[in-house]
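Tutorial handout. Part one gives the primary structure; part two gives the three-dimensional structure as tokens.
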Amino acid sequence: MDIFLIFFSWLLIGCWLILEFKMWWLSRTWKTTGDFELTPKEQSDLTRARGKAATASKNVAKSKKQIATLEQKGKNLRRNKNGEFDRRSALGKKLNKDLKRVQAMAFRYGNEFIQAEHEVEIFLQIPWTRARPWISSEVYRITSRLVLIGFTLTIYTVFVAGWSPPYYGFFIFGSWGILFLVIVAVYRKLLSTKLGY
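Part two.
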């Protein structure tokens, strides 16, 4: 029990020191939460991607409107089994040709819109991607501090009270291990919410 206690104590202290050093290293890169935001170049790229998405959206709406107009023009014409207008009339041939062209354009504009929206989403995820390592390090650092203090007080209390059965050690280690995971989850959610991610 004593060897296990000493090993676990030094492991806990070592993890805490490593996490402190890691956070110190990260704090050299990111001084404020504004450092997670988009750079001016990324901001201009985001504006350009949003412009492309808006243009593609307008083009999709315009081509759908053209399709509806063409369908309206041919509402009195007969249709084939495949849904095309009857080719026996000049208007039917023209509408079929125009409809295929406009549908192809609508499909292309739809793909452009999807691609532009994907680019916008990528740019919007950049701040969260930058903040994630900092949030994780900060959460583990603060949690390890709390657990180290709590574990030390618990062990001190156990020895002062004179409790020495071996199962108390496993109970203490297990309790603080579970508490560590709970504190990490709660603090990560709290910190992410505070930062707006």
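Part three, for discussion. The mean pLDDT is 82. The chain has four helices and no strands.
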